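Tip: read the tokens left to right.
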């Protein structure tokens, strides 16, 4: 049995254990990348500032798994004198390793911080959070770096780890909080139902949300959303699962229809949703198939059924007090884009805008001729077959329709910076068109 649904669930459970720290002068530090979604939930619950702790281990030459020290931002370096002596390392050996790791550390820090300063740890309690402990080497380095940055007290907090985790961190952390230490522990992912890789873009979005909602100096709380929870929605003969987030004063809501092989836990769609939430848009990340239906591959391409369920979901939103008056947008990815466009053609859905990411609009077939909602088609520049399919769809859609090609991107937008471009394009499109509908009411 899995212990946590995903990193968000793990963060909320961890936050409850850390509740006694609330009110103290703490800084929550997420270890990138997977530790940041967990840390975000902790910071939100404890009403504390969130930062990322970027560290690099310094490995012994020809035995890099053995760390002789670690480095952090602002020139911090800590050494394990015992390892240095036993490995007979001299200054040149250590400097060569540090130079290489310093370049990578600087690259990561610049990507995650985007010009923002590191939050000071001097005299404060550093709560270091990761999604779990395996070997513990990175977490040990993080504890050392936090101490070198001036933290007066270091707490290491993780959802899952080995049963000797407290002993492993003696001398590194002042406190260790680990929720679960399962028997036969071998990997962090074994405790999670959903454990996808966390992309850089999700880390950046969470840090932006935290910085926008909290004053690091004053310790003002991150404003919680009105709703941020799993929901069950009746769609035709079945009940489908979704995750609904409604920020304060929403200006519209965007329903996500994912592609084949993905789910409402998709890190790419979650990242885009977080960007939309930061702009004041509510989101509903949705699974249009039940787990049993997903086992039949043919259901993924049953666009008529999927579109019908999207229509049912839109009608469900119209019956919810918090969303009844909000204009609705659809964000479809891959095959989900075909379903989104087919649903947008149905007048019962009352859709205000559509965005397709790497979509298959051709799957909507003849329904494209009835799509009147403003539509943005986003395609990767290296996704040549899909570009052509989107060009044909653009010609078939009678309403406002734009095609934007993101240079250098492949189908999944995995290249650095490309998913950020998708999120910005989608955000601007939805804010523009859904806000117009609000103004008209």
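Filled-in amino acids:
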């Amino acid at each position: 049995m899995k212990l946590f649904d995903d990193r968000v669930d793990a963060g909320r459970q961890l936050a409850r254990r850390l509740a006694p720290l609330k009110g103290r002068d703490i800084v929550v530090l997420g270890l990138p990348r997977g530790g940041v979604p967990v840390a975000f939930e902790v910071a939100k619950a404890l009403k504390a500032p969130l930062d990322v702790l970027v560290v690099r281990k310094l490995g012994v030459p020809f035995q890099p798994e053995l760390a002789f020290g670690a480095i952090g931002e602002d020139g911090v370096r800590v050494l394990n004198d015992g390892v240095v002596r036993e490995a007979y390392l001299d200054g040149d050996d250590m400097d060569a390793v540090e130079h290489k790791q310093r370049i990578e550390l600087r690259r990561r820090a610049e990507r995650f911080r985007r010009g923002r300063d590191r939050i000071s740890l001097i005299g404060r309690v550093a709560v270091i959070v990761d999604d779990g402990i395996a070997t513990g080497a990175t977490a040990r380095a993080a504890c050392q770096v936090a101490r070198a940055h001036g933290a007066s007290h270091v707490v290491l907090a993780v959802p899952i780890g080995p049963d000797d985790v407290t002993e492993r961190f003696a001398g590194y952390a002042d406190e260790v909080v680990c929720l679960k230490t399962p028997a036969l522990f071998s990997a962090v992912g074994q405790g999670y139902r959903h454990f996808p890789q966390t992309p850089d873009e999700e880390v950046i979005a969470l840090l932006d949300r935290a910085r926008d909602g909290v004053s690091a100096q004053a310790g003002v709380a991150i404003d919680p959303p009105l709703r941020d929870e799993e929901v069950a929605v009746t769609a035709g003969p079945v009940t489908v699962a979704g995750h609904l987030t409604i920020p304060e004063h929403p200006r519209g809501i965007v329903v996500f229809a994912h592609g084949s092989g993905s789910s409402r836990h998709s890190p790419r769609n979650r990242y885009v949703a977080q960007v939309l939430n930061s702009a004041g848009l509510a989101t509903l990340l949705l699974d249009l198939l039940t787990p049993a239906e997903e086992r039949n591959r043919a259901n993924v391409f049953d666009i008529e059924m999927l579109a019908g369920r999207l229509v049912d979901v839109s009608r469900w939103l119209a019956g919810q007090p918090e969303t009844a008056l909000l204009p609705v947008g659809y964000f479809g990815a891959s095959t989900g884009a075909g379903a989104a466009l087919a649903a947008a053609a149905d007048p019962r859905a009352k859709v205000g805008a559509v965005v397709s990411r790497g979509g298959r609009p051709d799957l909507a077939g003849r329904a494209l001729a009835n799509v009147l909602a403003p539509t943005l088609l986003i395609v990767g520049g290296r996704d040549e077959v899909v570009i052509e399919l989107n060009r044909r769809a653009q010609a078939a859609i009678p309403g406002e329709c734009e095609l934007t090609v993101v240079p250098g991107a492949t189908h999944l937008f995995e290249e650095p910076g490309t998913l950020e471009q998708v999120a910005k394009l989608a955000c601007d499109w939805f804010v523009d068109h859904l806000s117009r509908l609000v103004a008209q009411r």
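The first helix runs from residue 7 to 17. The CA atoms of residues 235 and 309 lie 5 Å apart.
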